[in-house]
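Sorry to interrupt, but I need a hand with the structure work. Please put the record directly below this note.
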Amino acid sequence: MSLKESLTDVNNPSIIKKPIERAQWKGKIDFLISCMGFSIGLGNVWRFPYLCYKNGGGAFLIPYFISVFLAGIPLFLLEVTVGQVTRRGVIAAWNICPLFQGVGYACTVINFFLNCYYTVIMAWAFHYIFSSFTSQLPWTRCDQSWNTPACRVFTSRPINSSTIENITHNSNRSLITVDATTEYWERRVLHLSDGIHDIGTIQWDLALCLLLTWIMYVTALLPYVFIIILLVRTALLDGASNGLIHYLKPDWSKLTDMTVWSDAGTQIFFSYSIGLGVLTAFGSYNKIQHNSFRLLSGCVIFCTLGYMSYISNIPLNQIAESGPGLGFIVYPKAIGTMPGSPFWSICFFIMIILLGIDSMFAGVEGFIAAAGDYFPRAMANKRIHCIFVGCVCIATYLVGLSMVTNGGMYVFQLFDYYSGSRIILIVGLLESSVIGYIYGYKRISKDMKRMYGYSLKWFAFLFWCITTPLFSLALFIISVIVYEELTYKRASLSQPYHFPGWAVKFGWLMASSSIFLIPIVMIIKILKTSGTFLQRIKKLCIPIIENNGETIETIESNVIGNSMDAVDPVNS
């Protein structure tokens, strides 16, 4: 559906259209596995375990599961339901309330940014896999061409959190030593420059690995196999139990820290793939009547960290790192000390790739479904559809190339930090508020009754009208209060790298590029709709529902009044 068609439709107060036939899942299991494949993402391998330990161990699970109950499950169900009732991707699905169709655009932009840097993680993993086909892993030695005189092999002697030790010489100068794994990561894989101002040249080995991520197709269940294999192996390591104790031991004092609640709430949105348009796209392929992995990956990671703590005599809280540091420094370092290390290295990085491929393909499908619904008749042509998919992949690949340069890690950090973490909370707030109040919780309950065979009227009222909007708003306010400017800690430097002002501004520009689409689209639609200002608002709040052969509720012209009056569960 084109924007012109959408704007023309809203001038009619009662609209039911018959859409082009939409593809469907072959069975319920296809939908379930696809959702699992996207939700079981890379963030559950390194981000969740780190946040759990950083924010009080087992105590972190309290705000986490509160966030699951108040935001994760309600928004997950909401997005799938909206996709299923409209049979459209996230942009066209927001014809359910055309005034807020900009929410669909915002989701699509956030999804695009996510696809850009997720593929880079897989490129790094491919590099490590290819480097693992050797009798001795290259990051366990200090005699390679990229090593410096400061290189040290990881042994049982103490090292600090960034694997650096300062050895005083002549009382007035120090020699900084860096372990071989860190040098391999920074000097061989990344060829890391001094800052984002020195972007450097493209690393063609990583560029080819990045290209490889776009020509793979893998099912969603394989990551489980490798997670279980790694869990069994790491659980047998010396000190693994200490790692699990540190991972899950509660620190109740952390519950009063607002950062803990902000981290937990934000992680929920990424764990459940909320606000990216993917769940809406998946739901749109359901038939109209179709009716604790992250903890496991955390156990694998912290069994490994416990083992490292044991052999190096270092407190575990000095070893844990976040993000790429956990996946590409800490874990490879531990693997290098295991018997048969090349095999375990290949297993770990294959798992990373499988998780990333599932996330990438689901994300790309969400983007394609959103954009493709704009031109449904053209996209029905297989040749045009293939060309469009190819253009999306090429565009994403080209953006990803900026992250495989000498300064690519700094670009990666900008995307990861600014592109969606806080903005996605606003998306969740608007989704629940618009569906609960403007479209109406009564109407969505009737849709669910028609599709699922039962109505969740009280659930819709309680969560989509009250708790989820308030909780999402609270999380956003907290995230703003605890906001800190982005820094990047290099292992070879004692002080973290602070991004220059222009880079921070670029990060905020990237973040605002998605959320500003909401008021921009709203203004455009108001300007292009006939009538007085109030009449335009009313027309733009009337759902444009596409009939697929089933009986669909007649839309009243006074839909705003009906929806607002609907917030009365007693008389419903």
The CA atoms of residues 322 and 376 lie 42 Å apart. The radius of gyration is 25 Å.
